[in-house]
Task: structure prediction
Amino acid sequence: MFKFQRLNVWLKAKNYSKDLFFVANSLPVSYRYSFTDQLVRAGLSITNNIAEGTGRISKPEQRNFFNMSKGSVYETVNILLILSEMGLVDHKKLDELTNKADEVCKMLSGLIRK
Result:
């Protein structure tokens, strides 16, 4: 088992990323090459950067990857807010996902401060 697989933040981010995938796949086909692709990529970037950060030896390098991961969380929230305003994500789902995103961000902030 890799180190990142034991991190609660990676587990939560992985579940959040899967949620984003399902939202993306529920969008109309006309949004597949704009919002869908970007939402999935940003979601994967969250977990990818956590994984890559744990593979680094120096604390500054680790922090850099955790910061990039946090930025990707913000990117997904931005996309979700726009999709919600367009009527493509309902408010209940938006609240659920932004709460998960906030939890992941707080956990990442804890890793960054270490």
About this structure: The helical segments are 8-26, 32-54, 59-85, 91-113.
